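PROTEIN DESIGN WORKSHEET
SECTION A - STRUCTURE
LENGTH: 242
TOKENS:
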């Protein structure tokens, strides 16, 4: 059985998932409880729970997937085996932030319960906002314009998670460009245009600075997921720190 909670309103999503998990645990006090995120995801354990029924567990098990889709292996496995999760005697609660409609619809079709939480009072932009304009300003270390574009993207209804993702993508590409040849980059899946642009932007940072910024982005992302601090404010402060 699958319960699916998702959306760009992370606070309400976390609260709903926690309430749901607490309720399910209260109803089944003897059930085993497993909580996984993108870092401690265990494919072996989940295969046992999804395909083996109760397996080694004496009672049914409640599994809480806490933003595991940041782990590509976890995401691919869950999406490829939704039928087995849905038919299992065990209960799976999936909590995710903003994800694409194709993915959310695929999970919703197999879920017993679905709840989406969206940020309120978002202003829709008539013209689609170009997120890459933020990465360009960020790569140039133009904090003023990066901050202005960040504010415009929020007004346009783009989630902080999506903004974080595109900046982190640019950071990774700059790190690759600084330390690789174009042939190595192509093997890593970086297209020549992206590589050359990232190489040019990377000259505005030292290797140590890029790695420190990358580590910082990962750190405040995980802290926010655990309820420690406001994610949008943390991202804004990060942009102003370049």
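SECTION B - SEQUENCE
RESIDUE ASSIGNMENT:
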């Amino acid at each position: 059985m699958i319960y699916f909670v998702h959306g760009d309103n992370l606070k309400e999503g976390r609260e709903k998932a926690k309430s749901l998990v607490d309720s399910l645990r209260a109803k089944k006090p003897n059930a085993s409880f497993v909580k996984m995120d993108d870092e401690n995801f265990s494919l072996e354990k989940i295969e046992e729970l999804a395909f083996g029924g109760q397996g080694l567990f004496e009672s049914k098990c409640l599994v809480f997937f806490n933003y595991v889709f940041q782990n590509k292996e976890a995401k691919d496995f869950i999406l490829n085996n939704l039928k087995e999760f849905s038919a299992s005697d065990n209960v799976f609660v999936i909590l995710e932030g903003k994800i694409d409609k194709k993915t959310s619809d695929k999970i919703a079709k197999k879920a017993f319960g679905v709840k989406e939480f969206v940020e309120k009072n978002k202003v829709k932009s008539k013209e689609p906002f170009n997120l890459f304009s933020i990465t360009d300003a960020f790569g140039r270390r133009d904090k003023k314009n990066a901050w202005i574009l960040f504010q415009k993207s929020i007004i346009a209804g783009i989630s902080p998670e999506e903004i974080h993702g595109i900046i982190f993508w640019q950071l990774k590409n700059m790190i690759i460009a600084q330390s690789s040849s174009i042939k190595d980059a192509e093997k890593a899946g970086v297209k020549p245009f992206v590589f050359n642009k990232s190489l040019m932007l990377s000259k505005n940072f030292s290797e140590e600075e890029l790695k420190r910024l990358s580590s910082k982005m990962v750190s405040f992302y995980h802290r926010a997921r655990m309820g420690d601090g406001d994610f949008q404010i943390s991202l804004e402060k990060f942009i102003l720190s370049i």
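SECTION C - NOTES
The chain has a mean pLDDT of 86.
The two ends are 45 Å apart (CA to CA).
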